[in-house]
Amino acid sequence: DVVYRAGVYGRHPRVPTVYRALAREAERRLDARAHGYVAGGAGDEATQRADRTAFDRWSVVPRVLRDVSRRDTSVELFGRRLPAPVLLGPVGALELVHPEGDLAVARAAAAVGVPMVFSNQASVPMETTAAAMGDSPRWMQLYWSTSDELVESLLGRAEASGCDAVVVTLDTTMLGWRPRDLDLGHLPFALGKGIAQYTSDPVFRRLVEERAAATAARPTGAAAGPVDRQPRPNLAAVRALVGMARAWPGPLVENLRSPLPRAAVETFLSIYSRPSITWADLAWLRERTRLPIVLKGVLHPDDARRAVDEGVDGLVVSTHGGRQVDRSIAALDALPDVVDAVADRVPVLFDSGVRSGADVLVAVALGARAVLLGRPYAWGLGVAGEDGVRQVVEDVLGEFDLTLGLTGHTAVDQLTREALRRRP
Ligand code: FNR
Prior knowledge:
Elements: H1 2-8, H2 19-29, H3 32-39, H4 46-56, E1 58-60, E2 75-77, E3 80-82, E4 86-88, H5 101-112, E5 116-118, H6 126-131, E6 138-142, H7 148-160, E7 166-169, H8 179-184, H9 186-191, H10 196-199, H11 202-216, H12 235-247, H13 251-254, H14 262-272, H15 282-288, E8 293-296, H16 301-309, E9 314-317, H17 331-342, E10 348-350, H18 357-365, E11 370-373, H19 375-406, E12 420-422
Parallel strand pairs: 4-11, 5-6, 6-7, 7-8, 8-9, 9-10, 10-11
Antiparallel strand pairs: 1-12, 2-3
Helix pairs in contact: 2-19, 5-19, 12-14, 16-17, 18-19
The structure holds ligand FNR.
Ligand FNR binds next to helix 3 and helix 19.
């Protein structure tokens, strides 16, 4: 119907409907560094390829004569009914691909009614993004900072911004080895686009200033210990960092030779993530928010089981789009075992490699309650802003609805592994 009508009435899509064509169009339009940042992955990008080929190992076996004239694609998640098992996953530094960044994504998400997960590395403070969404659902993603106070502040802001859940990303305690970013000089370029949640935070501002003052007070020269050989932040650097949210895309960010003074960047890098976190820290987090806690980046069934035992409210099976560990198990290959380990105690979400409505169907049939989109909507944003994001999401939802019906189902909870066969 949709397809015929589009042809008959000469509807021209704003962005290519074919994912590969969309990605190519984005590559054509975007600055090489912005494109490299979004497209790239860890190491040889084997995980990213594996995330896709994993889908090729599953086939759907359609059923016929089951009255599929009326279908319901909605699902419930943390007490809210969503139009489809689809969310927009957290993608940082979106302003790299479009000047309206997170705001354009938020408007598109709200128009379609799918939740947007605010990235901790967003280009726009969550309060501003939330304000663009009306009552539409939104979640917040957290990188566990070295500062307890900053974590508490971010959680409080998420609650005040109307977020329905907090997604704690565990696969990025350190940034992965990303050759494209290394070669293209990613850091000064992208960092400046991804620190708005920090520069808008009163705790972060105070921490930066305190650190700068402490470093400036240290002795110099021969008396100085190894720490003092590090470049040291000066007040201008601190102000630059704190003011970056407003300053970009000024020369600080664009000119690789005079990026943010290096010391201020180092300060940020030491704050944004805490590689020392362990299971023991989860209880602390649990006490500090009333929001459901969802752990993102879980791939091992034992970790999944432990997480549920520790009282978390949901999981996201994810390789972070192959951006963290090269030669990792593909997210889709990890999904069934995690689903079995969790045994319906909490919802299991999924991302990494979802490109179409048929992909959504396969992930859901393997036990995912919902999936998160990443690169597809980032490309839509890069090619056509808010309209582009909206079209990408509507295309995925439209194809999901059709495939649901064409395979003989009328509701999402009818999708089980029974619908799938493993390819020989
Ligand atoms: C991400 N992802 C991500 N995840 C997260 O928890 N916080 C973040 O800030 C980001 N930032 C980010 C930037 C870019 C450019 C990409 C492509 C991805 C990971 C994201 O949430 C999701 O796990 C992946 O995008 C899924 O892979 P695909 O399907 O997009 O390939």
